[in-house]
Specification:
By secondary structure, this protein is an all-beta fold. It is built from no helices and 31 strands.
Length: about 325
């Protein structure tokens, strides 16, 4: 009957299959008990839009039948979207078929595949992607989106490093291109000075990742340049050399120039403090160091001891004064 189809045909309890013309054959080796089970067909309606065509037959199907999804497309085209009874199929390119249970409307949309520029932005703590489409065989200038507080270090196009102009590159869209944009961080340093001197440069400074910034620490009279205190999670301290500090930042940070004052005098005896007449060396010496509040030791004088005053049992008491500091 119209709108119906053969579901199954049990013959003596065993199911038989029929061909598409509804013909089946029996080997008549005895009486046969045949039951023809009919079902109302589920009708499949198909609409193809664009440069492609759904090849799955649009006809009636027995409920519960698995319907394979087949289609053909033109060159440089793709299946763009697929809906079944108004429901969008996610990742339609991987869709292989469905089980039909009722009348079904299938709509497939095909479109031309435009060449694309696939862009990956990478750097310290940076990972993002972008895709741009353009007309085939067109020439396009693509400007890369550089995030705030970053800068462009290099660009690879299809695995080859290229030169860019003003964060842009010109593409000939004869196919897909794969771009890696390497970014570096721009760190913000806030520089202040502590008691006992000044620092230059001072205030807010922007420094690119991997670059160093040079500071000049100028101490006041009676002070010395100690270094830079870095107020970050690591609590770094960079000592100065002759009042100069080179610093390569790895994050945003606040820096304070540190200066030190003399704290005490220290005497280094260079070995045994006892000297005897007739010593083969004849003379020995003492070195006096100025010790600063940051622990730095600076040699300020040497005192020579002569054999003439090193008579047996004789002691010599030496007083050493440096500003307000005294030792003996």
């Amino acid at each position: 009957a119209d709108g119906c189809g053969i579901d199954k045909i049990p013959v003596n309890g065993s199911e038989q299959y029929v061909d598409t013309s509804n013909v089946f054959r029996l080997f008549m080796d005895g009486d046969k008990d045949v039951t023809i089970n009919l079902s109302k067909l589920c009708h499949l309606s198909i609409t193809s839009i664009g440069p492609g065509k759904v090849e799955t037959p649009a006809r009636g199907y027995i409920p519960g039948t698995y319907v394979s999804f087949l289609y053909s497309i033109e060159e440089n085209c793709e299946l763009s979207s697929l809906t079944i009874n108004g429901i969008l199929i996610e990742d339609c390119a991987m869709f292989s078929g469905f089980t039909i249970e009722s009348d079904t409307v299938l709509e497939a949309v095909f479109k031309e595949v435009l060449p694309r520029v696939y862009i990956s932005y990478v750097g310290q703590g940076i990972q993002s992607n972008d895709i741009k489409e353009f007309a085939r065989n067109s020439v396009q200038t693509v400007t890369f989106d550089i995030p705030d507080n970053t800068f462009l270090t290099k660009v690879d196009v299809d695995g080859v490093e290229v030169e860019v102009t003003g964060n842009s590159y010109v593409f000939t869209m004869d196919g897909n291109h794969f771009v890696t944009v390497h970014l570096g961080r721009i760190y913000a340093l806030t520089v202040a000075t502590g008691e006992g001197g000044s620092v230059s440069p001072m205030g807010k400074i922007l420094v690119r990742e991997g670059q160093s910034v040079d500071f000049i620490l100028t101490p006041e009279s009676g002070w010395r340049a100690s270094g830079l205190e870095v107020h970050n999670e690591f609590g770094d301290f960079v000592r100065s050399i002759d009042g100069k500090v080179s610093y390569i930042p790895s994050c945003d940070a606040e820096l304070t120039a540190s200066f030190a004052q003399p704290r005490e005098l220290k005497v280094d005896y260079h070995g045994d403090r006892k000297y005897y007449v007739g010593d083969d060396f004849g003379r020995d010496r003492l070195t006096v160091y100025l010790v600063y509040t940051d622990g730095y030791e600076e040699a300020i004088t040497e005192y020579s001891v002569s054999t003439e005053i090193m008579e047996a049992g004789t002691e010599q008491l030496i007083y050493i004064t440096y500003g307000e500091l005294t030792t003996h």
